[in-house]
TrEMBL record:
Belongs to the sulfotransferase 1 family. Gal/GlcNAc/GalNAc subfamily. Residues 61-370 form the Sulfotransferase domain. It comes from the Eukaryota. It is found in: Golgi apparatus membrane. It is an enzyme of class 2 (transferase). The chain crosses the membrane at residues 21-44. Gene3D superfamilies: P-loop containing nucleotide triphosphate hydrolases. The gene is LOC115464968. One of its GO terms (cellular component) is Golgi membrane. The keyword Transferase applies. One of its GO terms (molecular function) is N-acetylglucosamine 6-O-sulfotransferase activity. The lineage of its organism: Eukaryota, Metazoa, Chordata, Craniata, Vertebrata. This is Sulfotransferase.
Length: 398
């Protein structure tokens, strides 16, 4: 049996009978609704998130450090983090990966990109889908690596011009409200994000072409043999490796992981260097880790100039000391404190020749593209006088 529509001017009463509303009451109701709709229409404004306002020009400088796991990117990130003009976050998209671990890395690219866009716009509410119960800044991965989150207005543990003191930050700042992160971000001229989970550059085109962002990219690459060696002793990559392997449709092990990592770095560079779109002009710079550590101070000064940062004499002294082993490790917060040139070659003492041959085969294209010399014998592996960088790869700026 079909139900017949009830005319709006009828009102149901007990017993199933209907009576017509008085005409003046009906007209009064219709007039009230009309007035409300008119007022709503005249006062309504579309909700526009800051990061999607394409008519607003950028007032900050945004830097995305692209690299892969165990490539020296944390070291490079810290050289920016210590600048008092920088708001820095270490791998914030980890929250996305660990919320959606069943997806492959390419499926995760869009939400990673969108989160990075929001961070650059200082819209930290974008973390809520991935950290719905977050109350404190300390619930964000790597929070204590950020000098900005350990100094005002996020926390009063130290001054903005101080070099970060992790133990002091851990003691003083873990209960600071999550909302303070957004306030802190808005108070800096530069927002820097270090990421290892992007395997393609084109997914970032919406950010690079957005006039509300002044985005620049530093692409840091490293000898894949050094990456493999470091990964063997770093046991916190299980979830990441499982996601990477899923994108390769294989079981979790070093072979597909290294293949995907190497392919991703090649893809990023190839996209940036082969007929790049106009909006990429002056926004991309490639640097090899092995070149960087040969003269860290000169190289970081060059990168500072690239993004419009100044270096104080105090910061310059710290960079020199941290990369020449003159700061006792017990007083340093970074595990890579020491002679940076020697640290860059440690892998040659740890990785056996069989592993070297395997990774050279897996990453042959990356090694050729970035200028890494093949090792053909155990003797060459241990010969530290042999420079494995075939030629100085110029720091490409598109």
């Amino acid at each position: 049996m079909l139900l017949q529509p009830i005319h709006p001017s009828w009102k149901k009463i007990p017993g199933g009978m209907f009576r017509r509303l008085p005409v003046f009451r009906l007209r009064l109701c219709l007039l009230s609704v009309t007035v409300l709709l008119t007022v709503s229409y005249l006062t309504w404004k579309p909700c526009r998130l800051p990061e999607k306002d394409h008519n607003r020009r950028a007032t900050k400088t945004h830097l995305l450090i692209l690299s892969s796991w165990r490539s020296g990117s944390s070291f490079l990130g810290q050289l920016f983090n210590q600048n008092p003009e920088v708001f820095y976050l270490l791998e914030p998209t980890r929250a996305v990966w660990f919320t959606m671990p069943k997806m492959n890395p390419y499926q995760l690219h869009p939400p990673l990109r969108d989160l990075v866009r929001s961070i650059f716009s200082c819209n930290m509410s974008a973390f809520l889908p991935y950290m719905p119960r977050a109350q404190f800044i300390s619930e964000l991965f790597g929070w204590h690596e950020s000098r900005a989150l350990c100094s005002p207005p996020a926390c009063g543990a130290q001054q903005r011009s101080d070099i970060i003191d992790r133990p002091k930050c851990n003691r003083s700042c873990p209960k600071n409200p999550f909302e303070k992160m957004e306030e802190a971000c808005r108070s800096y001229s530069h927002v820097v994000v270090k990421e290892v989970r992007f395997l393609d550059l084109e997914v970032l085109y919406p950010l690079l072409s957005d006039p509300s962002l002044n985005l620049k990219i530093i692409h840091l690459v490293r000898d894949p043999r050094a990456i493999l060696s470091s990964r063997q002793y770093f046991l916190e990559l299980e979830t990441d490796d499982a996601i990477i392997s899923r994108g390769h449709s294989s079981m979790t092990n070093s072979t597909p992981v290294m293949q995907v990592i190497c392919k991703g770095q090649v893809q990023i560079y190839h996209t940036a260097s082969q007929n790049p779109p106009p909006f990429l002009k002056d926004r991309y710079r490639l640097i090899r880790f092995e070149d960087f550590v040969k003269d860290p101070l000169a190289n970081i000064k060059s990168l500072y100039e690239y993004v419009g940062l100044n270096m104080s004499s105090n910061l310059e002294s710290w960079v020199h000391n941290i990369t020449h082993g003159t700061i006792p490790k017990k007083k340093s917060f970074m595990h890579f404190t020491g002679n940076s040139k020697e640290i860059a070659q440690h892998w040659r003492q740890k990785l056996n020749f069989q592993k070297v041959k395997e990774v050279q085969k897996l990453c042959r294209q990356e090694m050729h593209m970035f200028g890494y010399q093949l090792i053909r014998s155990p003797a060459e592996l241990k010969d530290m006088s042999l420079d494995l960088t075939l030629h100085k790869k110029k720091n490409l700026v598109c």
